[in-house]
Amino acid sequence: MTQHIKTLPEHELLLEKSFIRNLNAPDWLFALSVFGGAVFVQARFGIRLDVYETAILWASAGIAVFLGWFFKPMRGFIPLGVLLAYAAVGLYGGNIKSADGFLLRYFLSSQSAIMWQCAFVFFALFAYISGAVLASVKNVPGNTLLNMGTAFAWVSALAGFTGLLVRWHESYLLRPDAGHIPVSNLYEVFILFLVITALMYLYYERKFAVQKLGGFVFGFMAVVVGFVLWYSVSREAHTIQPLIPALQSWWMKIHVPANFIGYGAFCISAMLGIAELFSLRAEEKGGKLWLPPSALIDEVMYKAIAVGFLFFTIATILGALWAADAWGRYWSWDPKETWAFIVWLNYAVWLHLRLVAGWRGRVLAWWAVIGLFVTAFAFVGVNMFLSGLHSYGTL
């Protein structure tokens, strides 16, 4: 036992040294640029930041560095999004009326950037589907259309990320005393959801070489875009409104993003579940397999649910801490809290059956698909049909 206790830290130290050794000059340059940007923000806007916002700023810088090291394309994505947003801030010049300028009106204002995000979701969907069809006909693993789908997916995520950052600034231009991070209503969190889902899919696409699955994921994202557009037109949800008292908390800034990493992962897993069902059917019939093998899809689906479960658990804990701060108790079995627990339990059982019982294949694929409806009701349905402490999130 003594020997084991001594060797375990040495093994962990070797892993850490190996990770550090694999970092190259661009990795360190990226880290330097991110922390340099954080220093700039702290120096220029520090007087407006309270202690919580300062902590979130530096934590965000650390997370950005880790993401850039872990997923290399983020080294370009994050700085480019920040630079585009900062360009928009400069074009505004402290006056919201400057939004009528050409670049802001058609490209860099929050609403313009978000509309570009919505458009490129459809572009990516068309390219992914066309590329998958072409790949199945010519029996080649990849083609220009699939690569275009990947490029369009990156553009959609970049436009949405930029739009959210600019919207944050616009909220302060409209109401200097009531500006807030843009995760306060259904419209804003759906834009965040689209960004997170696209980035998570792009990571799995790159890691497992599953471009043909892009049509499934972006098909669902196109449905979300349709809802966002309807919501904007019918409810004018794109207008920036002041925060209601229940949301005027720094807990919102960390609870909501963590929640939507979970939601994004669960939705990806549901679309992969549909793809796995198609793949299993083709394998059983011995026909031409136009999708990746079902075993590979199953593995990607498992990875997505595992990540989603981790972040949803973190978000649930943060939500309980927020509830204690706002209402004086950690848990009330409010309808929203109850359904959050149902979602958590659903995926906990799913992971248990796969990891402990060894389940694979059709049953878990269907389970992931049904899990999407459970998750959707927990997020949207509860707000529409039930009332409680979270009733401020209604449509």
TrEMBL record:
<feature type="transmembrane region" description="Helical">
    <location>
        <begin position="364"/>
        <end position="386"/>
    </location>
</feature>
<protein>
    <submittedName>
        <fullName>C-type cytochrome biogenesis protein CcsB</fullName>
    </submittedName>
</protein>
<feature type="transmembrane region" description="Helical">
    <location>
        <begin position="339"/>
        <end position="357"/>
    </location>
</feature>
<feature type="transmembrane region" description="Helical">
    <location>
        <begin position="28"/>
        <end position="45"/>
    </location>
</feature>
<dbReference type="GO" id="GO:0005886">
    <property type="term" value="C:plasma membrane"/>
</dbReference>
<feature type="transmembrane region" description="Helical">
    <location>
        <begin position="186"/>
        <end position="204"/>
    </location>
</feature>
<dbReference type="Pfam" id="PF01578">
    <property type="entry name" value="Cytochrom_C_asm"/>
</dbReference>
<dbReference type="InterPro" id="IPR045062">
    <property type="entry name" value="Cyt_c_biogenesis_CcsA/CcmC"/>
</dbReference>
<feature type="transmembrane region" description="Helical">
    <location>
        <begin position="144"/>
        <end position="166"/>
    </location>
</feature>
<dbReference type="GO" id="GO:0020037">
    <property type="term" value="F:heme binding"/>
</dbReference>
<feature type="transmembrane region" description="Helical">
    <location>
        <begin position="300"/>
        <end position="324"/>
    </location>
</feature>
<feature type="transmembrane region" description="Helical">
    <location>
        <begin position="260"/>
        <end position="280"/>
    </location>
</feature>
<feature type="transmembrane region" description="Helical">
    <location>
        <begin position="114"/>
        <end position="137"/>
    </location>
</feature>
<keyword id="KW-1133">Transmembrane helix</keyword>
<feature type="transmembrane region" description="Helical">
    <location>
        <begin position="216"/>
        <end position="233"/>
    </location>
</feature>
<dbReference type="InterPro" id="IPR017562">
    <property type="entry name" value="Cyt_c_biogenesis_CcsA"/>
</dbReference>
<keyword id="KW-0812">Transmembrane</keyword>
<feature type="transmembrane region" description="Helical">
    <location>
        <begin position="77"/>
        <end position="94"/>
    </location>
</feature>
<dbReference type="InterPro" id="IPR002541">
    <property type="entry name" value="Cyt_c_assembly"/>
</dbReference>
<feature type="transmembrane region" description="Helical">
    <location>
        <begin position="51"/>
        <end position="70"/>
    </location>
</feature>
<feature type="domain" description="Cytochrome c assembly protein">
    <location>
        <begin position="183"/>
        <end position="390"/>
    </location>
</feature>
<keyword id="KW-0201">Cytochrome c-type biogenesis</keyword>
<keyword id="KW-0472">Membrane</keyword>
<dbReference type="GO" id="GO:0017004">
    <property type="term" value="P:cytochrome complex assembly"/>
</dbReference>
